[in-house]
Amino acid sequence: MSEKNTCRCPWLDTSKLDYVKYHDEEWGVPVYEDKKMFESLVLESAQAGLSWYTILKKREGYRKLFADFEVTKVAKFTDDDVERLMQDASIVRYRRKIEAAINNANRFIEIQNEFGSFTKFIWSYVNNETIVNNLDTIKDYVATSPISDALAKDLKKRGFKFLGPTTLYSHLQATGLINDHSNSCFRKNAFKLL
């Protein structure tokens, strides 16, 4: 869908066709696979302090350099891998974020071992059902919620890094645990049958 009269979320820069494609096909779609969940966590963590569009443009670089987000491979990255990643401009070259991604891979695996899957763990925060928010204008959007606050506290206690309430709220939106498409957006009701 690329017609000019198609209603989309008010935050979306519709002049960026790759951003529109991301919004129309990925953002807010419920994720039930751990690999996709891990990818989103790494990318959202990398985005902290930057625009999502910056990370979207670098996503292929992340996929290539982070072993296509195979969590067990990322968990084994060494200091040499960190140095290698720091030299590649196809990702955000911020050492603490790179180190956090490796650390978080190990913590992610711990949650998988405890709960059977990370997806099972995180969906329990929304009682296994997407929360649908009522959003009419850009002013209705929030940066955090009690759920993202509680999740951030839990993950911090478990040793995760660079995943605060705002970053996790974005993750919950992106992976469909929270449906924050605006009420007028054509994607708002796309997932009711899932």
Automatic annotation (TrEMBL):
Q: Transmembrane segments in this chain: where?
A: none
Q: Does the keyword Ligase apply?
A: no
Note the superkingdom of the native organism: Bacteria
**Top-level enzyme category:** hydrolase
Where would one find coiled-coil regions in this protein?
Answer: none
Q: What Pfam families would the database entry show?
A: Adenine_glyco
Per the record's keyword annotation, is Hydrolase included, yes or no?
yes
Record GO terms (molecular function): DNA-3-methyladenine glycosylase activity; metal ion binding
UniProt: Zn(2+) binding residues: C9, H23, H181, C185
What SUPFAM superfamilies does the record point to? DNA-glycosylase
Biological process GO terms, please?
Answer: base-excision repair
Q: Which PANTHER family match?
A: DNA-3-METHYLADENINE GLYCOSYLASE 1 (PTHR30037), DNA-3-METHYLADENINE GLYCOSYLASE I (PTHR30037:SF4)
Name of the protein in question: DNA-3-methyladenine glycosylase I
Organism for this UniProt entry: Colwellia psychrerythraea (strain 34H / ATCC BAA-681) (Vibrio psychroerythus)
